[in-house]
């Protein structure tokens, strides 16, 4: 079957069309058109929706809602989303960032999907017409997901509490060796009162470093006191092996880079 | 096979074609319209050789479906020079020996043009960032960076 | 750019007019305007797309091939298997009498590396060709495979290539290329220090931005025009002539514009099968590697292993050097027997050593066939040799650059393969490097010359 594109004005109609066999949703095209170009003949129907809400960014106080079709470039340039600009710029080169969408990034297999790592640290909520899902649950079930993602929502991190690091061999644009995002709440005495740490490339999809988060709580951000968190960073990881790095290498360097992120 | 109409402005001229649904803009430009200046190097968004400018933004034509470009304004490197006079970027690429095999050149020039359109006097770092999605396997990056900086300087001199 | 005319000033007239002067590149105006015509910029009405069905196994016997479903697929025009290729078993260096023919255009009875071409599908669209290729059924009996050169050379290793009969290329000199000069064992016996080290490298892909490919158009008179990005135009034409059993006068090759080659486009891979497709269908045909094919299927630089044993005196003279080189050809020869032979000629490096022993092996394994790439046969060897030189200098506590001055070959020195040295400019290059890198060496080395006797 030849490839064919169907465009719908509403997400509702696009969702209905996606029930047909052999269909996939087309966001920015950086994943699905690539797959078709590379000879993936399992997809014969591309479905997209031009519903305007998919392309809007809404910021109300510290609450943010980003439509699923919003591009990385739009996030990087948005005046209220400074905190996320670094993570958005970590995706691809300039042309890719003009195309790649927030919704698509949730489905990007490792070593891609750096922005989803940031969203995981932010504890984002993923919305579809069927309802809202915490990002962790969404990522775990994404392979079977059929409902079109309409938006991602999260609370803007307090000043300086969000950190993001992408490690790549080629700069400024390179595929990830790994990426790390963290949201660290601090007590008045400077110790960490709560931590959320997300890792990219340390499994087939973004994952949380839960043992490291626990080991960090109550600690100050000094070399000695983060040591237990670094020691626990590899807990539960199963990194990918690809042309960029082996699983062994990724595990070896993870504590080093997590240490740099925490001490930055 | 279902054909769909596509209609857009390419380098200032109106173009209308029927293409197979699902055809990439790269194929439509090269095989249907006959503008072969965008090149297919990887068809996966990695090399940047297919870069074109769509409505003022740098895009990869290999990952863009032609039928999503209806009504758009598209620029490619083949449309840069006017009545035989090279665009300052083309002139600079020529003068600074910024081409080797030439396969990445049209994409590089598109990426550079978008940069200079928005940032007429870029820093070296800004040039590097702007070209970061374009691979030159002959590894002639330094002359390419110099070409973009040279073109920016000649633009600002002309404007002065 | 600077020209240091002080070097060789007494032996060469200062009459350079072009060198050192910037001149516009003749191809650049085409490049910057997007007008340069690469092969894929040719488009013909009714052009067919060729996609290859490839082996998923490293080593397997083909029990059967069933193309019946694929033939029925909408858009499919022709499907080619080994029996359609007039002279299916070939080797590119046969043009210079380097046999035996050892490689199949399309696999016949057996596959010897993962990715080997088995069935060619020609269809109206790329998509139809991809879909039909997925419907070709090949029944394989998987065989034991060998990926390591030393394993391949052991008795009882799986035989990779029956056309050779053993897992190494049989030179007229035997199982390897050999250089024998002086008495290497006597040299080791008389040396103050002996150092043996081994070095190895992995295959390296050229990764040109333009992938390998060609576009073929029948001219309507049994003649075919082939637009190609080969780096080896007449090599390709002559081999195609043999493979298709077609006089060269029927083949019109148009090329010379290559979107990056680096040696990766000297094999004769896409043109014969694409021309055959055009001949059997009467239609234009394009066969262009996908990026994945370019990375996985096109020949890489060979993996190499180099074992170097040196005898060195405390005063810095290397008195004996024994080198054993292994070149991993992968499953087929392509240019690798030549690469391994080049290695033998290249060792012991640009140094004058009185006692030299060199063996270089071209080994077959079930890996992707390797071939040419920028200085193949010598580049990895140079890496090994120069790392070894640094280690030797450290061993005797000598400055590494001065150590090289002591051993550098100079005009008139006899090389190990018995060619007298001429035109050696190594001394002068190192003198300039010493200045440029601000790495001073003793005055006596700065006073040396490659060509002035006694200096």
From TrEMBL, chain A:
<keyword id="KW-0560">Oxidoreductase</keyword>
<dbReference type="InterPro" id="IPR005107">
    <property type="entry name" value="CO_DH_flav_C"/>
</dbReference>
<dbReference type="InterPro" id="IPR051312">
    <property type="entry name" value="Diverse_Substr_Oxidored"/>
</dbReference>
<keyword id="KW-0274">FAD</keyword>
<protein>
    <submittedName>
        <fullName>CO/xanthine dehydrogenase FAD-binding subunit</fullName>
    </submittedName>
</protein>
<dbReference type="InterPro" id="IPR016166">
    <property type="entry name" value="FAD-bd_PCMH"/>
</dbReference>
<dbReference type="InterPro" id="IPR002346">
    <property type="entry name" value="Mopterin_DH_FAD-bd"/>
</dbReference>
<keyword id="KW-0285">Flavoprotein</keyword>
<dbReference type="GO" id="GO:0016491">
    <property type="term" value="F:oxidoreductase activity"/>
</dbReference>
<dbReference type="InterPro" id="IPR036318">
    <property type="entry name" value="FAD-bd_PCMH-like_sf"/>
</dbReference>
<dbReference type="GO" id="GO:0071949">
    <property type="term" value="F:FAD binding"/>
</dbReference>
<dbReference type="InterPro" id="IPR036683">
    <property type="entry name" value="CO_DH_flav_C_dom_sf"/>
</dbReference>
<dbReference type="Pfam" id="PF00941">
    <property type="entry name" value="FAD_binding_5"/>
</dbReference>
<dbReference type="InterPro" id="IPR016169">
    <property type="entry name" value="FAD-bd_PCMH_sub2"/>
</dbReference>
<dbReference type="Pfam" id="PF03450">
    <property type="entry name" value="CO_deh_flav_C"/>
</dbReference>
Automatic annotation (TrEMBL), chain B:
<dbReference type="GO" id="GO:0016491">
    <property type="term" value="F:oxidoreductase activity"/>
</dbReference>
<dbReference type="InterPro" id="IPR036884">
    <property type="entry name" value="2Fe-2S-bd_dom_sf"/>
</dbReference>
<protein>
    <submittedName>
        <fullName>Carbon-monoxide dehydrogenase small subunit</fullName>
    </submittedName>
</protein>
<dbReference type="InterPro" id="IPR002888">
    <property type="entry name" value="2Fe-2S-bd"/>
</dbReference>
<keyword id="KW-0411">Iron-sulfur</keyword>
<dbReference type="GO" id="GO:0046872">
    <property type="term" value="F:metal ion binding"/>
</dbReference>
<dbReference type="InterPro" id="IPR006058">
    <property type="entry name" value="2Fe2S_fd_BS"/>
</dbReference>
<keyword id="KW-0560">Oxidoreductase</keyword>
<dbReference type="InterPro" id="IPR001041">
    <property type="entry name" value="2Fe-2S_ferredoxin-type"/>
</dbReference>
<keyword id="KW-0001">2Fe-2S</keyword>
<keyword id="KW-0479">Metal-binding</keyword>
<feature type="domain" description="2Fe-2S ferredoxin-type">
    <location>
        <begin position="4"/>
        <end position="80"/>
    </location>
</feature>
<dbReference type="GO" id="GO:0051537">
    <property type="term" value="F:2 iron, 2 sulfur cluster binding"/>
</dbReference>
<dbReference type="InterPro" id="IPR051452">
    <property type="entry name" value="Diverse_Oxidoreductases"/>
</dbReference>
<dbReference type="InterPro" id="IPR012675">
    <property type="entry name" value="Beta-grasp_dom_sf"/>
</dbReference>
From TrEMBL, chain C:
<keyword id="KW-0500">Molybdenum</keyword>
<feature type="region of interest" description="Disordered">
    <location>
        <begin position="14"/>
        <end position="34"/>
    </location>
</feature>
<dbReference type="Pfam" id="PF01315">
    <property type="entry name" value="Ald_Xan_dh_C"/>
</dbReference>
<protein>
    <submittedName>
        <fullName>Aldehyde oxidase/xanthine dehydrogenase-like protein</fullName>
    </submittedName>
</protein>
<dbReference type="InterPro" id="IPR036856">
    <property type="entry name" value="Ald_Oxase/Xan_DH_a/b_sf"/>
</dbReference>
<dbReference type="GO" id="GO:0016491">
    <property type="term" value="F:oxidoreductase activity"/>
</dbReference>
<dbReference type="Pfam" id="PF02738">
    <property type="entry name" value="MoCoBD_1"/>
</dbReference>
<dbReference type="InterPro" id="IPR000674">
    <property type="entry name" value="Ald_Oxase/Xan_DH_a/b"/>
</dbReference>
<dbReference type="GO" id="GO:0005506">
    <property type="term" value="F:iron ion binding"/>
</dbReference>
<dbReference type="InterPro" id="IPR016208">
    <property type="entry name" value="Ald_Oxase/xanthine_DH-like"/>
</dbReference>
<feature type="domain" description="Aldehyde oxidase/xanthine dehydrogenase a/b hammerhead">
    <location>
        <begin position="33"/>
        <end position="144"/>
    </location>
</feature>
<keyword id="KW-0560">Oxidoreductase</keyword>
<dbReference type="InterPro" id="IPR008274">
    <property type="entry name" value="AldOxase/xan_DH_MoCoBD1"/>
</dbReference>
<dbReference type="InterPro" id="IPR037165">
    <property type="entry name" value="AldOxase/xan_DH_Mopterin-bd_sf"/>
</dbReference>
<feature type="compositionally biased region" description="Basic and acidic residues">
    <location>
        <begin position="14"/>
        <end position="28"/>
    </location>
</feature>
């Amino acid at each position: 079957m030849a490839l064919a594109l169907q465009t719908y004005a509403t997400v509702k109609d696009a969702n209905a069309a996606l029930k047909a066999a052999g269909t996939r949703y087309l966001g920015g095209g950086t994943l699905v058109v690539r797959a078709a170009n590379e000879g993936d003949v399992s997809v014969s129907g591309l479905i997209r929706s031009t519903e305007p809400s998919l392309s809007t960014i809404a910021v109300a106080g510290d609450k943010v809602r980003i439509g699923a079709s919003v591009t990385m470039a739009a996030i990087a340039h948005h005046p209220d989303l400074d905190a996320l600009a670094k993570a958005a710029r970590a995706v691809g080169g300039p042309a890719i960032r003009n195309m790649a969408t927030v919704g698509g990034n949730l489905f990007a297999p490792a070593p891609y999907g750096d922005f989803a790592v940031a969203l995981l640290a932010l504890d984002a909520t993923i919305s579809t017409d069927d309802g809202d899902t915490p990002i962790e649950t969404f990522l775990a079930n994404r392979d079977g997901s059929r409902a079109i993602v309409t938006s991602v929502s999260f609370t803007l991190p307090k000043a300086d509490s969000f950190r993001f690091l992408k490690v790549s061999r080629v700069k400024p644009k390179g595929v990830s060796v790994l990426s790390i995002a963290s949201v660290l709440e601090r007590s008045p005495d400077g110790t960490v009162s709560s931590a959320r740490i997300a890792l990219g490339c340390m499994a087939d999809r973004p994952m949380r470093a839960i043992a490291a988060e626990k080991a960090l709580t109550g600690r100050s951000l000094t070399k000695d006191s983060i040591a237990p968190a670094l020691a626990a960073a590899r807990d539960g990881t199963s990194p990918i092996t690809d042309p960029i790095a082996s699983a062994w290498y990724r595990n070896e360097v993870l504590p080093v880079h997590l240490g740099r992120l925490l001490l930055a | 096979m279902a054909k769909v109409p596509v209609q857009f402005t390419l380098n200032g001229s109106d173009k209308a074609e029927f293409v197979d649904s699902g055809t990439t803009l790269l194929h439509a430009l090269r095989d249907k319209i006959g503008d072969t200046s965008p090149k297919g190097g990887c068809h996966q968004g990695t090399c940047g050789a297919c870069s074109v400018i769509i409505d003022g933004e740098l895009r990869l034509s290999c990952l863009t479906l032609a039928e999503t470009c209806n009504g758009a304004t598209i620029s490619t490197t083949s449309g840069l020079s006017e009545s035989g006079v090279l665009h300052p970027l083309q002139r600079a690429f020529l003068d600074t020996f910024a081409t080797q095999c030439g396969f990445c050149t049209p994409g590089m020039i598109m990426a550079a043009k978008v940069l200079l359109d928005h940032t007429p006097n870029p820093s070296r770092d800004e040039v590097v960032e702007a070209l970061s999605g374009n691979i030159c396997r002959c590894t002639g990056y330094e002359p390419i960076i110099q070409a973009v900086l040279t073109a920016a300087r000649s633009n600002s001199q002309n404007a002065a | 750019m600077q020209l240091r005319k002080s070097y060789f000033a007494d032996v060469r007239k200062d009459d350079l007019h072009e060198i050192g002067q910037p001149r516009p590149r003749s191809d650049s105006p085409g490049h910057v305007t997007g007008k340069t015509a690469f092969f894929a910029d040719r488009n013909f009405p009714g052009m067919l797309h060729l996609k290859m069905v490839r082996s998923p196994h490293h080593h397997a016997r083909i029990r059967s091939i069933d193309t019946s479903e694929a033939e029925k697929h909408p858009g499919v025009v022709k499907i080619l298997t080994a029996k359609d290729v007039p002279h299916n078993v070939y080797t590119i260096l046969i043009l210079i009498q380097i046999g035996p023919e050892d490689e199949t255009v399309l696999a016949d009875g057996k596959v010897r590396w993962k990715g080997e071409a088995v069935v060619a599908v020609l269809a109206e669209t790329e998509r139809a060709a991809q879909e039909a290729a997925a419907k070709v059924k090949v029944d394989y009996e998987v065989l034991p495979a060998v990926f390591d050169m030393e394993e391949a050379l052991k008795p009882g290793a799986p035989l990779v290539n029956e056309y050779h009969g053993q897992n190494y290329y049989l030179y007229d000199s035997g199982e390897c290329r050999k250089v024998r000069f002086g008495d290497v064992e006597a040299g080791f016996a008389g040396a103050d220090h002996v150092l043996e080290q081994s070095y190895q490298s992995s295959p390296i892909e050229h990764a040109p931005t333009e992938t390998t490919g060609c576009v073929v158009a029948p001219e309507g008179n049994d003649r075919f025009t082939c637009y190609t990005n080969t780096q080896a135009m007449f090599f390709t034409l002559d081999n195609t002539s043999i493979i298709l059993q077609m006089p060269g006068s029927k083949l019109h090759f148009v090329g010379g514009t290559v979107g990056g080659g680096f040696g990766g486009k000297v094999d004769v891979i896409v043109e014969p099968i694409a021309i055959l497709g055009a001949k059997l269908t009467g239609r234009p045909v394009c066969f262009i590697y996908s990026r994945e094919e370019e990375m996985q299927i096109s020949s890489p630089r060979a993996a190499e292993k180099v074992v170097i044993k040196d005898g060195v005196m405390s005063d810095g003279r290397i008195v004996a050097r024994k080198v054993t080189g292994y070149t991993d050809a992968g499953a087929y020869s392509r240019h690798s027997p030549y690469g391994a032979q080049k290695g033998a000629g290249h060792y012991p490096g640009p140094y004058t050593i009185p006692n030299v022993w060199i063996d270089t092996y071209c080994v077959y394994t079930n890996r992707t066939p390797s071939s040419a790439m920028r200085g193949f046969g010598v580049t990895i060897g140079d890496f090994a040799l120069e790392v070894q030189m640094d280690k030797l200098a450290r061993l005797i506590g000598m400055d590494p650059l001065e150590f090289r001055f002591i051993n550098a070959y100079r005009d008139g020195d006899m090389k190990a393969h018995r060619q007298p040295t001429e035109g050696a400019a190594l001394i002068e290059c190192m003198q300039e490097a010493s200045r440029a890198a601000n790495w001073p060496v003793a005055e006596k080395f700065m006073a040396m010359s490659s060509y002035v006797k006694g200096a």
